[in-house]
Design a protein that fits this description.
The protein has 19 helices and 22 strands. By secondary structure, it is α/β, with parallel strands linked by helices. Helix 4 (120-130) links the parallel strand 7 and strand 8 (137-140). The chain is globular. The N and C termini lie far apart (51 Å).
């Protein structure tokens, strides 16, 4: 018989429930405990879904002012995960996913190929239009057979861009058979001093390609924090909606080797969501599907029973969300995370806490309450990697940030209207559930992630938790008053120099 794990926090939340209280981040603080854990030594490994691991528990939100390819690339390099928003047209969203998957090129299963009869100038124009970061292309003949490679050197030394690719390509190449492992490729490429290793089947057709810079990185562990898949490529997720629109996106995303789908709706416990979940899992059972958003335990359990590989929790806690005020619904986030995680204990399905996080300590609280990961929007907004230009307001740099339920987002995108079940509404009759605003420009997102992970590590040290699972088991809470919250913040002083991890 499997021993049932005991969670310290159960008694606390049971008491709060009996009192009729639902709590958010400002209502609680974690209790400290005896600790033999140094913050620098804690293990932040966790999961976003059944099969998708994270080296740290931070995921960027699928918002049109937060996550496109640049943010997703940086999040995965930092050990987390980016979810590409669905306000992009399906083809553009799949191209953004491809940019992330091709960024490292461990094993490229489906390399972007060109034909030997194409003009050099046309290839360069396509590369610029698509925003490809790489310069090496496999070359195929009219029968689809591999005949050579063109590299950055070939392009740079080509003066006449009207020449055909076949005139400048390298044809005398070292190739290997399909099934060559990363380690085998590393040894072969070192021995032959080759930067690219094409993999061919018996009919001389290209089935994959290794790039040495990334193979070396994988083998030497020089970027151990990167969140990569089994082929050494960065992990990335993408948001989809419901119905036929979702299936259209899913079909395109599968071709780009997507790691995880996120059915991204304001109310995840709805019949259309569950039907879409079942259809996706039937078509692509090998790819995880995270579903949201919900905020009640019975809703989380219903999604898991329907086949969800991850549950996203949060209805209305976001800084740009007005759902709770406009619709009058919602469950304060800490209690919502606890109730949802408790309802699906033992299922192996992770919970992602989405929204309401203002400080790094809130991340510790969310995980202590039962979350396996957290999704950030506002805290990442305004960074260099977010979409949009910097705007100057009275000499201060800002970037735009808005909710996907804001009027601007709904007017621009059918996907945003659909997320809030307003697909059929005329633009003059839209009912927004979010606002639009600006946030100060914050520089590289890596600075934000470093500070938040530092705060999380510190919190885990105070609790005595060496890893995420221990934090979930050992976490216990104090319910604090308004005076307790005031006491928690700096008081009685005029702050003369802002800290990088604290703003009033």
């Amino acid at each position: 018989m499997v021993k049932k794990e005991r969670f310290k926090k159960d008694a606390f939340f049971s008491k709060m429930s009996r009192l009729g209280l639902a709590l958010s981040y400002d209502d609680v603080r974690l209790k400290t405990g005896h600790s033999e854990v140094e913050p620098a030594a804690v293990n932040l490994l966790t999961k976003f879904s059944r099969q998708v691991s994270l080296n740290n528990p931070i995921v960027s939100s699928p918002m049109d002012t937060v996550t496109e390819s640049d943010m997703a690339i940086e999040m995965a390099k930092l050990g987390g995960l980016g979810i590409i928003h669905r306000a992009l047209p399906p083809k553009e969203q799949s191209q953004a996913v491809a940019k992330v998957k091709f960024y490292l090129n461990g094993l490229i299963k489906k390399p972007i190929c060109i034909n030997q009869d194409e003009k050099v100038g046309d290839v360069l124009k396509t590369r610029e239009e698509k925003g490809y970061k790489f310069h090496t292309f496999p070359v195929l003949d009219v029968h689809g057979k591999f005949v050579g490679l063109v590299t950055q050197n070939d392009f740079e030394f080509c003066i006449n861009q009207n020449l055909k690719v076949g005139d400048i390509m390298s044809a005398d190449l070292k190739c290997e058979n399909d099934g060559t492992s990363v380690k085998e490729a590393f040894d072969i490429m070192r021995k032959n001093k080759k930067k690219v290793l094409p993999l061919l089947d018996q009919e001389k057709k290209l089935v994959g390609m290794y790039v040495f810079s990334d193979v070396k990185r994988i083998m030497t562990g020089s970027s151990a924090q990167y969140n990569i898949d089994a082929n050494g490529n960065l992990r990335v997720g993408a948001a989809v909606g419901v119905g036929e629109e979702a299936l259209e996106r899913v079909e395109l995303l599968v071709k780009k080797n997507i790691d995880v789908f996120v059915i991204d709706t304001a109310h995840g416990d709805s019949e259309r969501v569950i039907k879409t979940l079942k259809k996706i899992k039937k078509l692509y059972p090998h790819i995880d599907v995270v579903v949201g958003n919900v905020s009640e335990g019975h809703s989380a359990k219903r999604l898991v029973d329907a086949g969800a590989d991850g549950v996203k929790v949060g209805q209305g806690p976001g800084s740009i969300c007005t759902t709770r005020i406009i619709a009058g619904i919602g469950h304060p986030q800490v209690s919502a995370v606890y109730e949802c995680s408790k309802a699906i204990r033992g299922s192996g399905v992770p919970v992602c806490a989405d929204g309401g996080i203002k400080y790094s300590g809130d991340i510790t609280i969310a995980i202590g309450a039962g979350a396996d990961s957290v999704m950030l929007g506002n805290m990442l907004a305004g960074t260099k990697e977010t979409p949009g230009d910097i705007v100057m307001v009275q000499g201060v740099p800002y970037k735009n940030y808005r909710g996907m339920g804001s009027l601007g987002a709904m007017e621009k995108s059918k996907a945003s209207r659909d997320r809030y079940l307003q697909t059929g509404s005329g633009k003059d009759k839209l009912v927004p559930e979010g606002v639009e605003g600006i946030v100060p420009f914050k520089g590289p997102v890596s600075h934000i992630i470093d500070q938040n992970l530092g705060g999380l590590r510190s919190g885990m040290g105070y609790v005595g938790a060496a890893n995420i699972k221990e934090l979930q088991l050992k976490a216990d809470f104090h319910h604090i008053s308004g005076a307790g919250l005031s006491e928690s913040h700096p008081h009685g002083v005029i702050i003369t120099k802002e800290a990088p991890n604290y703003k009033t």
